[in-house]
Every structure is written in structure tokens, then in C-alpha cells.
Amino acid sequence: MNLEQFRHHAHKAVDMMADFLGDIEQYPVKSQAKPREIYDQLPASPPAQPEDMDAIMADFTQHILPGMTHWQSPNFFAYFPGNSSYPSVIAEMLTATLAAQCMIWDTSPAAAELEELCMNWLKEMCALPAEWEGVIQDTASSATLCAILSAREQASEFAVNKAGFEGYTDFRVYCSTETHSSIDKAVKIAGIGAANLVKVAVDDEMGMDPAALEAAIQADLKAGKQPLCVIATLGTTSTTAFDPLEPIGQICQKYGLWLHVDAAFAGTAMILPEQRWMGKGLELADSYVFNPHKWMFTNFDCTAYFVKDKEALIRTFSILPEYLKTSSRGQVNDYRDWGIALGRRFRALKLWFVIRSFGVEGIQVRLRDHLSYAQWLVEQVEAHPHAMLMAPTKLNLVCFRFCPKHLSPEQQDALNEKLLHRLNDSGKLYLTHTKVKGRYTLRMVIGQTYVEKRHVEAAWEEIKKGV
Could you tell me which residue, 308 or 331, shows the higher pLDDT? Predict the structure, then answer.
């Protein structure tokens, strides 16, 4: 493909993209493909000769699109949103065009400095502690692993990185029983071991119980273990439960533990002044993460990771081979020293486009709309004779189930599970489930970039039909 052919096909691709986004409500939200169906439709071997781009695009439309679940549909209410937006897509196209490797300042000065600027913008937008410094990671999972590794190195005076775990085999990490599974994975990768992850009991609203946390720490100290860090969650995956940061932070300070706060989804809500209740005690944290690629209309991947002490982070990850030594070192941020990967994408560009295109007030308007739609749904659930809320609706995740009184709890579970599959198989909307206190529960998250109240109303009508 030459440059003029690229221009021609790129224009056609953008028209196709715009048509797709304009018609996205016409597609089944959840792919209706059966296992192996897509694979079996495609050639088993690669082509020996070049293929025409029109043919490739035709196959994309015929074979790939039907196998995609459409996260950008306003009828997507599953998991948590993995949002995009028009300005973010434009920025991603430019990022792909530049195709820059942004590992250090010298390899793309604008990328490094724009990242620093955007992280400071986010800090201001969310009223985070002014002394914190931030970096864009790929996912909250990676950011949490960075936090645990930094805690490990700080506690060992950076000895584990140098000599291994000898003398440091009794580290303990604490989180609630509701915490995301990425914590389990991180303690394994960090070499601490799944057996040393302590799951702390939760209260009636499924937030971590500070008294239970302190009791677990004291028990470990008596047993000769070394408490290392606590992972607190603002907005758990299952029900958006909130761990009480202030008492947890005070316990961490009392025992000298690293406090990492995971607000992967809910953190975007702190752009709203009225939602900053969730951050009370955040100044006690050593590290903090939230994902603009979830609820802030920015394409995946874009994770905002903030630290109180950037030197602990950099000392944990910095390696300086001769070929990466530069005259600018020490004057600028070389972000490859701020995380796991050496190679880095230009993630800041799409964040910059989104913030400038929406404006802070525009983002706030959209977030408030989502919260109001969720409260409308709560009212519908509460008014329905056979429905009940299963967890407090603190933000825009509504957890509910149908429980006709003539059915046993087990029969009610079966009813809700059957309803979920029927709804998702219809292609009209997409929900997921969890279990709350052992009972099968439907989850409906209202946070897609372009969702309107009419979509929520139509979804509720469809849900009620199945009961």
C-alpha cells in the first residue's frame, strides 16, 4: 500500500467508523457468536500474496463485527464501562499515526511532558493531594502490582530487588473479601504468595471492617509475620462498596504499612465535588489508582496512578543500561522508570483530547446524568412488587434481583439467572451478575459515554417482561 492508497482507504475507514458508531444501537450488544464460529469462518493459513484492502474490510464487516460485543453501545450495562468517545478515537488515530515509542523523554519530549501535565490536570480535577505525582499505567492491575512491589522494596530497604527474598519471606498483604481478583494475581507475581494475602471481613455494606483489619495485623505480628501493605477499595467490582479510608489509613500509619487505594472505576466520580465524600482520608494513602478508560470517556488503556513518594517508585523500577543514558536525565521525567514496562504508548494524547473536548464541566454534566439515571432505576426497583435492591446504590451500579414470595431463595436464584441469559441472548441489552450474601444478583451499570435516559427506560421495560 502506498501513501495515496492509504489516504483513500483511510478515508473510507473513517466513514465506516462514523457509520458504525451512528448505527451502533442496531447491533446486538452482546455478540451472538457461538464458540469457534469466527475462527472456523477464516482461512487456516495466512495468504501468500497481498490481498486487496476492500476485501479485507469486507471480511471485517462480515466476520469480525458479528463476533464483537459492543461496549460502546448505550445499551451496554454489564461489568463496568470500558468507554470511548469521539475525541478519544481521533486521538487514538493520531497516536497510531505517530507510532512513537515513548519510553523516555528523549524518545518523545512532547509525550513525556503532556503526560506530566495531564496527570496534574487530573489531580486538580479530582482534588487529590497536591504533593502527589502521577504516571499513566496501562491498567489498574499493573498499577496495583507497582504499589505492592514498591511497598516490598521500601520495607526491605530495596534488598529484595538486589538479593532476592532471603530474610523477607514473611510479608503479609491485606485486602477485604470483596477486593478485585487482580490483588490475588499481584501478590503472586510479586513473589509474596497467595497464602500471604489476608482477606479481611466486611461490614453490612460490604466495606472493609477496620477492627477486623487491625486484629489480623496484630495476629500476624504475634506469629512473627511482617505486615507489608493494605489494599483499600473505593467502589468494589461486585457492588461498588467503599472501604472506610480514614480508619484504615490510621491503622496503616500506626503499624507502618503501605496503603494503596484502588478506585479503578469509582475514582472518576471525584471530578464531582459532591462525590468527594469517598476520598475522606485519601491523604493517608501512599498510592492511588483510577481508570479514565472506564468512566471518563477515554479509550482503553489509560490508568492514572498517583504516588506520595515518587522516589520509592523510581528506585523500585529504575534500571539504566548504557544505551538509555541521556543528557536530559534528572531534568525531566523518564516514565519508563515509573512502572513495569520499558516500552510505552503515547496514552496522554487521548486524555488531553477528552479533557479539552468535553471540558471539566462537560464531564461533570455527563457523570451527573448517569447518577440520576441510576437513581431513577432504583426507584423503579423499589416500586416493583417482586424486585428488591441487593446493595446500596452509592454511584451508578444498581444491584437487584426478582424474588417472588411464592418461590424459595434457590428458585429465585434460578429465575434471575434464566432472566439474565434471556436478556443477553436477545441482543437488546447486556447485563452481568454477581452474588450478594450468597444470592444471585443482577448488576446494571449506567455509565456508557452516550447513554440516555431512554436507554435505561427501555432496558427496564425489557427486564420486567422477562419476570
Answer: 308
Distances (CA, A) of 316 to 153, 264, 342, 435: 6, 23, 13, 38
Block residue for cell numbers 472506610 = 244
Residue in the structure block whose three cell numbers are 475507514: 13
Residue 291, classified by CB atoms within 10 Å of its CB into exposed (0-12), middle (13-18) or buried (19+), is buried
* Strand 397-402 to 387-389 pairing: antiparallel
Q: How far is CA 337 from the centre of its chain?
A: 22
Domain 101-345 matching CATH 3.40.50.10350: the answer reads: no
The phi and psi torsions of 21 (rounded to 5 degrees) equal -65, -35
The CATH class of 3-67 is mainly alpha
State the DSSP string of 351-371: HHHHHHHHHHHHHHHHHHHHH
Q: Which residues of 83-101 are buried (b: 16+ CB within 10 A; e: fewer)?
A: bbbbbbbebbeebeeeeee
What's residue 324's pLDDT? 57
Fold observed for domain 361-465? Aspartate Aminotransferase, domain 1 (3.90.1150)
Each residue of 254-279: pLDDT tens digit?
999 999 999 999 999 999 999 999 99
pLDDT in tens, 337-387: 999 998 999 999 999 999 999 999 999 999 999 999 999 999 999 999 999
Q: Which residues pair with 307 in a beta bridge?
A: 133, 287
CB atoms within 10 A of CB 18: 12
Residue 398 parent element (H or E): strand 397-402
Question: Which residues sit opposite 305 in a β-bridge?
Answer: 135, 289
Q: What residues have CB less than 8 Å from 19, skipping those under 6 apart?
A: none
What are the sequence ranges of the domains in the chain?
3-67, 101-345, 361-465
- Rounded CA gap, 110 and 365, in Å? 30
Residue owning grid cell 509525550: 111
DSSP annotation of 77 reads -
Identify whether the C-beta of residue 412 lies closer than 8 Å to the C-beta of residue 400.
Answer: no
CA distance 20 to 247: 49
pLDDT reading at 95 higher than 90 = yes
- Answering whether pTM is above 0.85, one says yes
